[in-house]
Write a structure and sequence with these properties.
The chain is an alpha/beta fold and 339 residues long. It folds into 2 domains: 8-144, Glycogen Phosphorylase B (Rossmann fold, 3-Layer(aba) Sandwich), CATH 3.40.50.2000; 159-337, Rossmann fold (3-Layer(aba) Sandwich). 38% of the residues lie in helices and 16% in strands. It has helices spanning 17-22, 24-33, 45-48, 69-82, 94-102, 133-141, 159-171, 197-211, 224-232, 247-256, 266-274, 287-290, 319-322, 326-337, and strands spanning 8-12, 38-43, 59-62, 86-89, 107-111, 122-124, 180-184, 214-217, 238-240, 259-263, 278-282, 297-301. A 6-stranded parallel β-sheet has the order 3-2-1-4-5-6. The chain has a 6-stranded parallel β-sheet with strand order 9-8-7-10-11-12, with helices on both faces. Helix 5 (94-102) links the parallel strand 4 and strand 5 (107-111). Helix 2 (24-33) runs parallel beside helix 6 (133-141). The protein is globular. It starts with 7 loop residues before the first strand and ends with a helix.
């Protein structure tokens, strides 16, 4: 498919924070290919904040997952009324392709999965080998002749995001301009992706003492008990931010931080895209597919025969995470920050 002049492009964005970050290079490639087009991004509300100030998107259109047929019809009608010339479908769902077909979008580009080939004008067949998720999105935009050889995932926090984050940190006990490290000990997918709370605490205590850092623990509202238990084990000053940040404020917190220690998670990808030194602990998931992308990242993993299993919960002894030591994580962090 050769690129031609398009005036209005709709990108149906990924539904998860990590995927939403890894799709940024593909979105930037679309912007470079169509610099004068009006590009609208349709995403779920919980990822919309990631693109609030993105220069490669003109409009962010946020819609919750339709719970009723009337909602689905309304969104489809809105798409039709906006008269897009092309829709780029990053999710592989049948539903997203059907919506664009019924909305009458002339060009519909996406992967030919989930039995939706007939609904796409440009269906892409995925390769037989697994590739990194970022490359997976880039391979999709190749079909519209986008240039993908030098992908850029970098993002920047706005001054408002940074200032809001610093005010929150100050309320939670971390002084303005004080250096701090971030712990992200949760994992939305399940316990198999989670390293141990006592080891997170030991890493934080060691590095905070050595580097003069405060400690902030992030996570969702449901992960606040995890953050509290970790902070109880740490002697140095800590702030529990779990459940207290919007996505925009979280971006500000990560941008202001000096180091991040994390499980495989959405915030991991945000930190890496912001250029924050990021140590990611992997076990049940495959770092070659979902690992953080960037020069200031390190992956710590203990190879075992059953990894990656991609299970939510380990059915045996969690040997992949049990094998990752505090010393290994601390050493990776020191390498990143030059200590």
């Amino acid at each position: 498919m050769r690129a031609k002049k398009l005036e209005k492009i709709l990108i149906r964005g990924p539904n998860w924070v990590g995927d939403a970050v890894l799709a940024i290079p593909a979105m930037k490639a679309v912007r470079a290919l169509f610099p004068d087009a009006e590009i609208t991004l349709l995403v779920r509300p919980f990822v919309a904040g990631l693109y609030a100030a993105a220069p490669f998107i003109d409009k962010v259109w946020s819609e919750a997952k339709p719970s009723r047929l009337t909602d689905w019809i309304r969104i489809t009608r809105d798409i039709r009324n906006r008269q897009f010339d092309m829709a780029l479908l990053l999710p592989n769902s049948f539903e997203s392709a059907l919506m664009m077909l019924l909305a009458g979008v002339p060009q519909r580009v996406g992967y030919a999965t989930e039995g939706r080939q007939w609904m796409l004008t440009n269906g892409v067949t995925a390769g037989s080998k697994s590739v990194h998720q970022m490359q997976y999105y880039l391979d999709l935009v190749k079909v519209i002749s986008a240039i993908v050889e030098s992908p850029s995932i970098e993002i920047e926090a706005t001054a408002h995001e940074r200032n809001t984050a610093r005010r929150l940190l100050a309320r939670e006990g971390i002084p303005i301009e004080a250096p701090f490290l971030v712990l992200s000990p949760g994992a939305a997918y399940g316990t198999a992706k989670r390293w141990y709370e006592d080891r997170f605490a030991n890493v934080a205590e060691t590095l905070a003492r050595e580097l003069g850092f405060y400690v902030a623990v992030i996570g969702s509202e449901t992960e606040r008990p995890i953050a509290a238990r970790i902070c109880e084990r740490i002697v140095c000053a800590t702030a529990i931010l779990a459940g207290k940040t919007s996505l925009e404020t979280l971006i500000g917190v990560l941008a202001e931080s000096s180091l991040m220690i994390t499980n495989d998670s959405g915030p991991m990808h945000i930190a890496a895209a912001l250029g924050v030194p990021t140590v990611a602990i992997f076990g049940s998931t495959d770092e070659t597919v979902t690992g953080p992308y960037g020069l200031r990242t390190r992956i710590v993993k203990h190879p075992v025969e059953c990894s990656p299993c991609l299970l939510r919960h380990c059915p045996i002894d969690h040997r992949c995470m049990n094998g990752v030591t505090v010393d290994e994580v601390c050493r990776a962090a020191r390498e990143l920050v030059g200590a």
